[in-house]
Write a structure and sequence with these properties.
By secondary structure, this protein is of the alpha/beta class. The protein folds into two domains: 100 residues, Tetrapyrrole methylase, N-terminal domain (Cobalt-precorrin-4 Transmethylase, domain 1), CATH 3.40.1010; 102 residues, 2-Layer Sandwich (Methyltransferase, Cobalt-precorrin-4 Transmethylase, Domain 2), CATH 3.30.950. Helix content is 30%, strand content 25%. A five-stranded parallel beta sheet has the order 3-2-4-1-5, with helices on both faces. It is elongated. The termini are far apart. GO terms for molecular function: protein methyltransferase activity.
Length: 208
């Protein structure tokens, strides 16, 4: 029986793409992914399907075709961390899925900052702005790491935390990880609040 392959493509650069992922994609009949993921395989001639907000359309295509086609679903970073795997598991059994890990941007951010992450609390503020939850996490956890976006960027996060009495922490902002424009900034929350950052960022907040 054909497996539906859910493949982590890493943070974005081909340098961080695992050889097993490249092999499986090369053998696939259909490649499904976001625009950045498909860009990595722009020279491949297989059928390509862009993931949009209409996830049901992707699910229906996979359900209708996976028995006769080899399907590769590409997800950013690692499939186990805020990816489409969570959605597809609602409709397909474990026996129907094959998951290949990738290097998460969170993992790369810790490496760039020379920090261990075995003791970190990992979450995401991508697409949401739950300030109360953020304040509670940073207040009670020694090390917090999360994805951010333009709706609640790192400088606003830092400003909010300082305004609410969090002054004994440092922050690390890793932007555009794995790309030529990559930048890692480590500073006090007050200093971070005065800076501007790219849309694609990972933020780590930890004790000084």
């Amino acid at each position: 029986m054909n497996k539906i392959h859910i493949l982590g493509i890493g943070p974005g650069s081909r340098d961080y793409l695992l050889p097993i992922t490249e092999r499986i994609v090369s053998e696939a009949d259909t490649i499904i992914g976001g625009s950045r993921a498909l860009e990595l395989f722009k020279d491949y001639t297989q059928e390509k399907i862009l993931i949009t907000a209409d996830l049901a359309k992707i699910k229906d295509y996979v359900k209708e075709n996976y028995l006769t086609k080899k399907i590769a679903v590409l997800v950013s970073g690692d499939p186990g961390l805020y990816s489409m795997l969570n959605y597809l598991k609602r409709f397909f059994s474990k026996d129907e899925l094959e998951v290949i890990p990738g290097i998460s941007a969170i993992q790369l951010a810790f490496a760039k900052a020379k920090l261990i992450w075995q003791d970190a609390y990992i979450t995401s503020f991508h697409g949401k702005k739950d300030k109360k939850a953020l304040l509670e996490m940073v207040s009670t956890k020694d090390k917090v790491a999360f994805f951010t976006d333009s709706k609640f960027p790192p400088n606003e996060i830092a400003k909010f935390l300082v305004e609410n009495g969090i002054t004994n922490k440092i922050g690390v902002v890793a932007e555009n990880l794995s790309y030529d424009s990559e930048r890692i900034v480590e500073a006090s929350l007050e200093d971070l609040s005065k800076q501007k950052f790219a849309k694609l960022t990972v933020m780590v907040i930890c004790n000084e």
